[in-house]
Amino acid sequence: QVQLVESGGGLVQAGGSLRLSCAVSGSIFSFNAMGWYRQAPGNEREFVAQVTSGARESYLDSVKGRFTISRDIAKNTVNLQMNSLKPEDTGVYYCYALGRGTFWGQGTQVTVSS
């Protein structure tokens, strides 16, 4: 059973930073890609960032230049460094992994106050 556990969410003022971490059971190399989605109240879940097993990164346009996704191979984690946060970045952030299926974490709340 694949388990993904997110951490690092919280409350921050606009312009601040947060670092999200997603710990996965097993090796991150067993997945084709890992990344993050987010969901704001009343909105659909939207893609935020992804890194493939080949280290190719992709981002939502509105977070390019502010967010950086990375992998920590030794710790089997995928991280999302979020800088210059805006109120519109508020939402529940979900980690996912693509392998023999799609696996999701429980989510971590990010709240950016204006």
Cα-based radius of gyration, to the nearest Å = 13 Å
Unreliable spans? none
Give the CA-CA distance, first to last residue. Answer: 40 Å
Helix-strand topology string? EEEEEEEEEEE
Shape by Cα distribution: globular
- Percent range for helical residues? under 10%
* Strand tally: 11
How confident overall, as mean pLDDT? 95
Helix/strand-derived category reads mainly beta
Largest sheet: 7 strands, mixed
Q: Strand percentage, roughly?
A: over 45%
Total number of helical segments? 0
Give the SSE layout.
Elements: E1 4-7, E2 10-13, E3 18-24, E4 33-39, E5 46-52, E6 57-59, E7 67-72, E8 77-82, E9 91-99, E10 101-104, E11 108-113
Parallel strand pairs: 2-11
Antiparallel strand pairs: 1-3, 3-8, 4-5, 4-9, 5-6, 7-8, 9-10, 9-11
Kindly describe this structure.
- The chain is mainly beta and 114 residues long.
- The chain has no helices and eleven strands.
- Strands 2, 4, 5, 6, 9, 10 and 11 form a seven-stranded mixed sheet that branches.
- It starts with a strand and ends with a strand.
Highlighted features:
about 110 residues, about 55% strand, 11 strands, four-stranded antiparallel beta sheet
